[in-house]
Amino acid sequence: MRLKYILLLALTISLICLGCKEVDAIQETTLNLAETKNRPTLFGDGIISTGLYQRDLAVSPDGNQLMYTLGDYKQQRRSLVQLNKVGGVWSKPELVSFSGVYQDIEPFYTNQGNTLFFASNRPINNDNTRKDYNIWYSHKIEGKWGEPKPLNNTINTTEDEFYPSLSNNGNLYFTATKPEGIGKEDLFVSKKLNGVYQKPSVLDSTINTKHYEFNAYVNPEENLLIFSSYGRADGFGGGDLYYSVKDKSGRWSPSKNMGKDINSDKLDFCPFVDVNRNTFYFTSERVVVDSSKINSIKEFKVMANRAQNGTGNIYSIGLDALHLEL
Hints:
The protein is mainly beta and 326 residues long.
């Protein structure tokens, strides 16, 4: 009789555990990249977007890997995090193998997802006195990310270089502050000729202003640029998303604010377009205020650590819903 009871108890525990795994699997499949929205929607609520600071989402071309930057509340520590989809189910977020020591941020996939560009303050050229951010890259080797390497000093200087984004022809767009710049922070492009990055040039006044321009995404065809700017007269608050398109002569059009349906009165930045699934992603520090009565410390902690608490979260919207004038 006792044996029968033990077997029954073991079976019950097994069923409970099996149910837990099933719930976890269902939870992960809520990251449906093919589902597009007609308004900005919190992405991966409770899985990716949490009460910590998330920004810089990138999606691999095949849609089987997501990567983003995870930071603490004040972004004093930041690391790259990835999720992998296997058999139609997403894994839980985990640190990228080479990340966790330095400030690694702003991932961008190239080479069909086999090369990853990112920005980091890790020591460059074995110089431990360097604390500036530079642009690095890693190749995927047998399904795993290899040891990162920095771009050469044509791109990386003793000042900061941020937010790499590349077109199909290899041209590199990034953020920097340089003497030849127009404003306090500017967007630059380095053209890749015969496999070599050329001296970066600052984008002209159709893009850059005397204020702050930063975090530019360029599409594969290099005819759409989406970026953030702070300080413009038409801004809504702490930094807005703008866009520009390239005309037939190869010039960028005067940039336009993406409007109040995208931008908030807080910082909106870190744009990315998943072109294969026609979805636009961005990061926002917007807040959704919960004015309900708090009845306990436990409830207070739950409220304080939810998504949309004022730290960065990631949002998505269908690209067609933006009505960009391409």
